Amino acid sequence: MSAANHNGPLRIVFVLPVGIERPSGIRYFNIARELVRQGHSVRVLALHPDLAHCPARRFVQEDVEVWYLGQMHSLKRGNQAQHFGLFALLRVLLLSTLGLIWGILRSPADVYHVCKAQPVNGLAACVGISLLRGRRFFLDCDDDETHSNRLSPTQRKVFAFWEWLLMKLAVGGTVNTRFLERRCRAAGMDRVVYVPNGVDGQRFLAPSAWVTWVTGLRRALRIDDSRVVAYFGSIAFQNHPVDLLMDAFALVQRRAADARLLVIGAGEDLPMLDDQAKRLGIGDAVRLIGYLPQQALPPFLALADVSVDPVHDDSVAQARSPLKLFESMAMGVAVVTADVGDRAEWLDHGAAGVLVAPGDAAALADAICALLDDPAQRRQLADRAGLRAATHYSWSTLAAQWLRVYTKPTAGSEGR
Hints:
The chain folds into two domains: 3-198 and 395-414, Glycogen Phosphorylase B (Rossmann fold, 3-Layer(aba) Sandwich); 207-392, Glycogen Phosphorylase B (Rossmann fold), CATH 3.40.50.2000. By secondary structure, the chain is of the alpha/beta class. A hairpin with a 2-residue loop joins strand 3 and strand 4. The radius of gyration is 21 Å and the shape is globular. It has 16 helices and 17 strands. The strands form three sheets. It has a nine-stranded mixed β-sheet with strand order 3-4-2-1-7-8-9-10-17, with helices on both faces.
């Protein structure tokens, strides 16, 4: 029986190549949690960033079943990212693919949803689900996988092939950007639902909820009387050009000497970012916090006067729906980003955030300085952003949109 003709609660299985702690994993866990709250059951089959130190490989979190069945393609531990050598990588990929296939075969369901168009979970789905006669899968695309990852030319070809193949094989799909919706339709998928990323409004509360925390953090970080610009996310220049923000902040420092840049996140380019700050002569004004778990982010974000999402105008940015943007909106922190992809739509075409030219450090600096100098404008933008996040981008609203891909078999754009 297809999901479209299924009456009552659905049994849903998500198949991930990442852990639920990673940015993409946060998307899938929150969708899964809200689907459970709406009466369905969800099991997440995933790969862990540090399997050897995984405290539990099967557990239930907020009524969502999570099974860790293998190691991710790279080892991520705190601020460190370690890439495997060729033979070790091949072994990891083989064991993880077999683990996911085993998990699929052990997980009878009405719906199988491949989350991220990558080779490991894609191959596992093609093999595992094909062994369950008459079953087909759905696909979620949340990135330009071929260009957002740092890959060799051969690896890039492999990723591009699997992105295309999974779009061709899937019975339908969900996407987090219009760019990826167009790509899916070009591959022949006519059953596509647009589901951008969102925010947990019960966790990302307005800064007034974190006053006690903020006082202590300001003292600990030596930013007591400073105006704060914040970035939080991965530190990997391939897909998050934090180096662009660092160049912009050097210009901000010339006009606002009391400003401080708070960088929260880890990644392979963190040492390079530190070197860049020192080379630009702004090392004393930059605080590199490193990795923080999702639940620890809100009080740090509450320190910020301005939150920045730096981007170039490329397929990586056009395909991305950054969590940082929605979480900043929900917390009432003014956002500066570039008019790339769907960002203008999410920010109500500038009514809920500032949009600048992409890849332009001077334009980014001008926008940051203008907001630092205008508390009334920051408050106005933050109020509009908070309302927009609550009404359009709560995970419960987005999960209801996501569900439509299972229950609406007709062609045409859904979720607009």
